[in-house]
Specification:
By secondary structure, the chain is of the alpha/beta class. The protein has a domain at 2-183 and 232-262 and 300-314: Rossmann fold (3-Layer(aba) Sandwich), CATH 3.40.50. Helices cover 40% and strands 18% of the residues. The chain contains eleven helices and 14 strands. It has helices at residues 11-22, 39-48, 62-72, 86-91, 93-110, 147-165, 199-207, 235-249, 268-279, 303-309, 317-330, and strands at 2-6, 26-31, 54-56, 76-79, 118-124, 170-176, 178-180, 214-217, 229-230, 232-234, 254-260, 266-267, 285-288, 297-298. It has a seven-stranded parallel sheet with strand order 3-2-1-4-5-6-11, sandwiched between helices. The protein has a three-stranded mixed sheet with strand order 12-9-14. It has a two-stranded parallel ribbon with strand order 7-10.
């Protein structure tokens, strides 16, 4: 089986590429390298001893996408490609809507021309909006608080409608929670540009001395220690979830939605404490005001993924913290 990974040179994409190659699948990656580095795929090849061919191009360009299908004839697509910064999406909504939705629609148009019916879509827990009831189930109401989230929600809607119009299609929509960590080798990991938006890379840069201290946004939430609680999942568990989704999609048609998370909420201070214990490094932090739009608690009910995909997260918080720090130490300036 040959799989096209759009955006496959990025953080989650490169770890998924590695898992697919280790499990005997062939891959090709289409990535415009806007927020990724081809070195990630060179290292995937080094770790697996197998080829991870990269086509540099944009998933929104129909001619480019068609040429990749013409040359490689993939049997399935895992669609990671997209802009992904929440704050930037608020400042540049049109960029996000045009890029993320065009990419999804382009794939939907090109795939049937090459008899490719299987697609796994990289969605997000942001589609649950401000649901207060936890844990979040796939049948809960949806709605978003920012343009990035809406691009995921609308892409889900597009894929659902396309599959309804063509019953031969098989689409799996994966709603990620909070991926952290890195491959245990330390050779591939999360490589944010500039000051990180996400908690774990920020902690790692504080630990390495690149940043002075961590800012904790709010300590007055109705949680155990007053800081926000989230469902953090090891990126390798997430990558293995894509393989499980692919195996499921091959034997089904229509649309299925799955949460990929651990089902356990950890607070910001839980992460700080676990990182310090796992790695023997002190993380100085200061409490700052809440960020607008942040909710107190967000975690998954991953029962459907367990029952239908036969997938559950295997790695604990200690492994997430150790692997993230191992990557940071080996790659202080990223790739």
């Amino acid at each position: 089986m040959r799989v096209l990974l759009t955006g496959g040179a990025g953080y989650i994409g490169s770890h998924t590429a590695l898992v697919l190659l280790e499990n005997g699948l062939d891959i090709v990656v289409l990535d415009n390298l806007d927020n990724s580095n081809p070195e990630s795929l060179r290292r995937v090849e080094e770790l697996t001893g197998r080829q991870a061919p990269l086509i540099v191009g944009d998933c929104t360009d129909e001619k480019t996408v068609a040429s990749v299908f013409e040359q490689f004839r993939p049997d399935a697509v895992i669609h990671f490609a997209g802009l992904k910064a929440v704050g930037e999406s608020v400042q540049k909504p049109l960029n996000y809507y045009q890029n993320n939705l065009d990419a999804t629609m382009t794939l939907c148009r090109v795939m049937p021309k090459y008899d490719c019916r299987v697609l796994v879509f990289s969605s997000s827990a942001t589609v649950y909006g401000t649901n207060q009831k936890m844990p979040l189930r796939e049948d809960f109401p949806t709605g978003c608080t920012n343009p990035y989230g809406w691009t995921k929600w609308i892409s889900e809607r597009i894929l659902t409608d396309v599959a309804a119009a063509d019953p031969t299609r098989s689409f799996v929509l994966l709603r990620y929670f909070n991926p952290i960590g890195a491959h245990e080798s330390g050779r591939i990991g999360e490589d944010p540009s500039g000051i990180p938006n996400n908690l774990m890379p920020f902690i790692c840069q504080v630990a390495s001395g690149k940043l002075d201290h961590l800012r904790v946004f709010g300590n007055d939430y109705p949680t155990r220690d007053g800081t926000g609680e989230r469902d953090y999942i090891h990126v390798m568990d997430l990558a293995e979830g894509h393989l499980a989704a692919l195996n499921y999609a091959k034997h089904h048609s229509g649309v299925e939605i799955f949460n990929l998370g651990t089902g356990t909420p950890y607070s910001v201070l839980d992460i700080v404490s676990s990182f310090e214990k796992a790695n023997g490094v002190k993380i100085p932090y200061e409490i700052t005001p809440r960020r607008p739009g942040d909710i107190a608690v967000c975690y998954a009910d991953a029962t459907r993924a367990r029952d239908l995909l036969h997938w559950t997260a295997q790695r604990d918080l200690t492994a997430m913290c150790k692997d993230a720090w191992n990557w940071q130490k080996q790659n202080p300036n990223g790739y």
